[in-house]
């Protein structure tokens, strides 16, 4: 199995081999065998340098964290000489 990121495109490649159990006679197989590839275009605001992948019990899990710059943050409001803290969280996005 292979996971790659090129720009904003995440690519997953893998190969599923047929089981070769000598003592099993298959009546029907519903899982396809061979190679496959999936490509996903990732949105803005993700930290592509910190993508993590784990494989456990036959399940691939990808963790793609949100970039710090894309997370909502509290903004202080300056009113002349006095600084007060805003009561709402503002989401700042880059264009």
UniProtKB/TrEMBL annotation:
Residues 1-80 form the SHSP domain. Signal peptide: none annotated. It comes from the Bacteria. InterPro entries: A-crystallin/Hsp20_dom (IPR002068), HSP20-like_chaperone (IPR008978), Small_HSP (IPR031107). Belongs to the small heat shock protein (HSP20) family. PANTHER family: HEAT-SHOCK PROTEIN 20 FAMILY MEMBER. This is HSP20 family molecular chaperone IbpA. It comes from Catenuloplanes nepalensis. The lineage of its organism: Bacteria, Bacillati, Actinomycetota, Actinomycetes, Micromonosporales.
């Amino acid at each position: 199995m292979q996971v790659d990121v090129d720009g904003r495109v995440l690519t997953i490649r893998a190969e599923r081999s047929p089981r070769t159990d000598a003592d099993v006679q298959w009546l029907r197989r519903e899982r396809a065998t061979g190679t496959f590839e999936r490509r996903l275009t990732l949105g803005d605001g993700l930290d592509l340098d910190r993508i993590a992948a784990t494989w456990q019990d036959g399940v691939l899990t990808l963790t793609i964290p949100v970039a710090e710059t894309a997370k909502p943050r509290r903004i202080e409001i300056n009113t002349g000489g006095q600084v007060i803290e805003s009561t709402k969280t503002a989401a700042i996005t880059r264009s």
